[in-house]
Amino acid sequence: MQPTRFRIALPGMGDWSLSAAVAGILASTMGYAGPLVILFQVADAAGLNDAVLISWIWGMSIASGLLCGWFSLRYKMPVLFAWNAPGSALLVTLVPGMPWGDVIGAYLMSGAMLLILGLSGGFEKLIKRLPLSLAAALLAGILVNFSLALFSKMTGAPLLGLVMFGAYIVLRQVLPRYAIMLTVVAGVAVLMATEGLSFAAVDWQLSVPQLYSPSFSLSALFSVSVPLVLVALSGQFITGIAILRQDGFAPPANQIVAGSGFMSILFAPTGCHGVNLSAITAAICTGSDAHPNPTKRYFGPFVAMFWYAMFGLFSAALVSVIQAFPAAFIAMVAGIALLGALEGSLAAALSQAKEREAALCTFLITASDLSLLGLSSAFWALIIGGAIFALQQRLAK
Questions:
Q1: Which of 210, 279, 303, 385 is an S-S bond match for 21, by CB 3.0 to 4.6 Å?
Q2: What is the distance between the alpha carbons of residues 37 and 338, in angstroms, rounded to a whole number?
Q3: Can you give the pLDDT at residue 1?
Q4: How many whole angstroms separate alpha carbon 72 and alpha carbon 305?
């Protein structure tokens, strides 16, 4: 048997495209416009310092960029990667109170699970068995508190909240792809007009990552690792692969999952909680707007590799820029950025009448602060929701 050869080739001059490059830059930047601020909420809740945040952003930016470069050049298709955005929302309630070494260990274990799923070819088999309604309900339960915070923060900053929420609703109708980014711009404009926003303290030095030692526990495995993998599979990989197939591509699903798992393991010691296939923003790179010729659209994620590298190398500057904004703005951006994901998750969770009760219980338990035997609400939501689902399936036969 001939050994497998992995060859990549840089884009030829005929593949260079301004429209595809802009699509890659825009798609990768959108991840920083909204979901990134969730990491600041994780850090605030867990009492993590700026060095952890800088390293965390460095790791997930560089890891995402490397995956974009490898898969776009290896398979000549617009495969865009990003960090586990719904997973970062999950961490707001899970990381506080857990030793940081256990958190790093949980990241390593979740990456190992993805790697095994991809190498064994078990990804597509698992998807066929996984009740998507329960996975969607789990994700919805994680996201709902962020959307509620959007409105609760309006009490202290009504003008900012109303302008941002109004802008988002209008932009979702007229410019849906750019709604989050332009909503952030609208919020920044309000702050500059009313509070004299300043970025004089931004640190433009190159950032250096930290390496953290892992420790391992069953509590971290079941409370953090398993939920991280499930929300990545249901909220990112399935959607991202569906988008690629919809636009006429045949993505190597198992290789994508394995590559994500490997890179997640490699960068977990920097604080990176996991990287995966990009979902909704990936459509910017896969459609005809990026380039009329599908074979040249891979240039977008190739350019995104360098864009991610820039954000990673200057992650300290990124941290200091975001810290210049008031806490209410950070919470509102996070809530708005996750509204679309919450809407889609709720729709998927309740779409099947026979699974609705199990999905509803999964949603409510996840959204609660239930904690038993040192295990989080996300774990118990899967156990109880899964038990209800299995019982209903058995009684229906």
A1: 303
A2: 11
A3: 40
A4: 10
User: What is the per-residue burial (b if ≥16 Cβ within 10 Å, else e) of 169-178?
Assistant: eebbeeeebe
Write out the DSSP string of 179-218.
HHHHHHHHHHHHHHHHH----TT---SPP----------H
Rounded CA separation 356/126 (Å): 21
Secondary structure of 12-63 as H, E, C letters: CHHHCCHHHHHHHHHHHHHHHHCCHHHHHHHHHHHCCCHHHHHHHHHHHHHH
Query: pTM here?
Result: 0.74
Task: Grade residue 281 by pLDDT with cuts at 50, 70 and 90.
Answer: low
pLDDT in tens, 298-325: 888 999 999 999 989 998 888 777 767 7
Whether pLDDT at 105 is above 80: yes
CA distances (Å), origin 334, targets 213, 249, 365: 29, 32, 22
> Which tens digit of pLDDT belongs to each residue from 114-154?
999 999 988 877 766 667 788 778 777 877 877 887 888 88
Tens of pLDDT along 328-370?
A: 787 787 777 767 767 877 887 888 888 888 889 888 888 887 7
CB 118 within 8 A of CB 300: no
The DSSP secondary structure of 132-167, one letter per residue, reads: HHHHHHHHHHHHHHHHHHHHHGGGT-HHHHHHHHHH
Residue burial 260-292, b: 16+ Cβ < 10 Å; e: rest: bbbbbbbbbbbbbbbbbbbbbbbbbbbbeebbe
Residue given tokens 């779409």 in the structure block = 351
User: Taking the mean position of all CA atoms in its chain, how far away is CA 246?
Assistant: 21
Distance CA 131, CA 355 (A): 9
CA nearest 276: which of 341, 228, 309, 311? Answer: 228
Residue with tokens 């920097």, as numbered in its chain? 270
